[in-house]
Design goal:
heterodimer; A: about 120 residues; alpha/beta; two-stranded antiparallel ribbon; 7 strands; globular; B: about 425 residues; 5-stranded parallel sheet; 4-stranded parallel sheet; 16 helices
């Protein structure tokens, strides 16, 4: 669960999966293999590359649940799929649904995009 | 929603024009779906950011395009890469990383892109789009500048989709490509406690950009009540900062930007949320750009200017501020600019004045992207909010933010020099 928006470029180390943005209150958090929940993306247009490179290195989030659509993340995930067959589902949730998710809870994303908790 | 495709779109998708073009077109269609567009529209130009190395994925991607015989369909400029091809001696990293960075930059030339290698393509008069022109630009500061300052139209394109649009010559008809997507929905005014002298100071604008990005997120905002006809360098610093702290791809400055001669124009005669930005919020945003102990007298190891790439006017201002003085012993003074702007600065004698003062001139890349600055335990001073924002995470730099004059005086004295009274406080 990220409390604030994150730019993956300058924010995620694709080699380790760690959150590295010095201005983010959750610096040091591990994102690899987790379901990343955040209100919105932010910042750099290089974030597509960082997501694809993290996927190649096995350090991408397992899925991204986000409060508003983001083209830059969508394309990063599309290229990860085209180049490496790595699928990172990105789902846009209504603010109420996003707020209902608690840190550490188990999240399942079905093929049709249905999100279930617990 | 299905995306309507014309005959050429389908031809590209089918692979008749090569596997590279088919791959590019698939990405454009996926983008159209992600943006909810029902058709594609033609573009006249593109600016591509994918030439900056982010690892093996960067290479794997471009190789797909090059091996698939793709070529860009419109005049396309390139953003910064990982290395300075003209001054390779400024690289302090390992050779393998430099080689990969260089080969990525070369691969994008092979796709037919022009090797401008600058994050400020808007400074190049021969590639700058016109008001209303539909383009596909990447690089967050350039996107904001393109939409806001030039009034050309681009969505917030990122790596991969930028060159895919350039190859397809098409973009989704969505977002900022459409007039209704460019309407301001938030109006921000400077409060009465912001002194007139600060409104006339360059240093206000990057900090204002940070606040704009935080307040606006991805929304189109209008800044009202600023001095009329703000110069492009000030607008550039707002763009870079707002696209760092937020996802700002467009804003209006009433009285300065082309789609906002009046506030009503920016609002397209609609309604908007109104808010004020007070002096205390500006101070707090400024302070957050520096490490905690950044008081006058703090020793510094370097000064980095030119993020985004310095314009000819900014290079001249740095040379004037130095006024024949040199950076203090042990302080690295580095200025990043584009290779085309450097050529103009050489012709005008400005580059020589900077070199004579001990300045390093970096092109094709930027000092916060890789191992370029001399390693130092001391902080680096910058007048760029974007540099201050990203350098700690990217290269582990300690940062002190200040005005151009503060940066140059600090470089000369070797310790943080503060312009008392600049911010109307203390």
């Amino acid at each position: 669960m990220l409390r604030e928006p994150l730019s993956l470029w300058g924010g995620l180390d694709p080699g380790t999966g760690e959150l590295i943005d010095a201005h983010h209150s959750q610096r040091g958090a591990q994102l690899a293999g987790r379901v990343l929940v955040m209100p919105a993306a932010r910042g750099s247009s290089s974030s597509s590359s960082v997501l694809a490179e993290a996927a190649r290195a096995g350090n991408a989030p397992a899925a991204i649940l986000i409060g508003e659509p983001d083209l830059i993340l969508a394309i990063g995930a599309a290229v990860a799929d085209e180049l490496y067959g790595e699928r990172i589902p990105i789902l846009v949730l209504a603010p109420g649904d996003l707020a209902a998710i608690r840190d550490g809870v188990r999240v399942s994303v079905a093929e049709d995009g249905e999100v279930t908790l617990g | 929603m299905p995306v309507a495709l014309d005959d050429r779109d389908r031809e590209l998708l089918s692979g008749q024009a090569g596997d590279g073009a088919a791959f590019a077109m698939r990405l454009v269609v996926r983008a159209a779906k992600a943006l909810g567009a029902d058709r594609l529209i033609p573009i006249t130009r593109a600016h591509v950011d994918s030439c900056l190395d982010h690892g093996q994925a960067s290479i794997d991607f471009v190789r797909r395009l090059v091996d698939g015989d793709a070529q860009v369909a419109v005049p396309t400029t390139l953003n910064v890469g990982a290395v300075d091809l003209l001054h390779p001696e400024l690289w302090r990293g390992d050779e393998a990383t430099a080689t990969r960075g260089r080969s990525l930059m070369e691969a994008y030339r092979a796709l037919g892109c022009r090797p401008t290698f600058t994050c400020a393509p808007y400074q190049l008069s021969d590639v700058r789009p016109a008001l209303g022109e539909q383009v596909a630009w990447a690089e967050s500061n350039a996107i904001a500048f393109c939409n806001s300052v030039i009034g050309a139209r681009t969505e917030r394109y990122g790596d991969f989709i930028d060159v895919a649009c350039a190859i397809a010559g098409r973009v989704p008809d969505a977002g900022l490509h459409r007039t209704d997507g460019r309407r301001a929905v938030l109006v921000l005014r400077l409060a009465a406690d912001v002194p007139g002298s600060l409104r006339d100071a360059d240093v206000l604008y990057p900090v204002l950009g940070i606040v704009l990005g935080r307040r606006a997120g991805s929304r189109v905002a209008a800044l009202d009540g600023l001095p009329p006809n703000l110069g492009e360098d000030r607008l550039k610093s707002i763009c870079a900062a707002a696209a760092s702290s937020g996802a700002v791809a467009m804003f209006h400055v009433v009285g300065s930007t082309p789609e906002a001669p009046t506030l009503a124009d920016a609002l397209q005669d609609g309604e908007a949320e109104m808010a004020e930005i007070g002096l205390a919020e500006l101070w707090a945003a400024r302070d957050a750009l520096s490490e905690s102990r950044a008081a006058a007298g703090t020793p510094i190891g370097a000064v980095s200017l030119g993020t985004p790439h310095a314009s000819l006017t900014e290079l001249a201002a740095i040379a004037d501020e130095l006024d024949g003085e040199r950076a203090a012993a042990g302080v690295e003074l580095l200025v990043s600019t584009g290779r085309d702007v450097l050529a103009a600065a050489e012709a005008a004698g400005i580059a020589q004045r900077l070199l004579d003062a001990g300045t390093e001139l970096l092109v094709d890349t930027c000092s916060y992207l890789g191992p370029i600055l001399r390693p130092s335990p001391l902080p680096t001073m910058t007048n760029s909010a974007k540099w201050a924002y990203y350098a700690p995470g990217n290269i582990g730099a300690r940062v002190v933010f200040g005005s151009l004059r503060e940066c140059v005086r600090s470089a000369v004295t070797g310790t943080v020099w503060r312009d008392a009274g600049l911010w109307g406080e203390r």
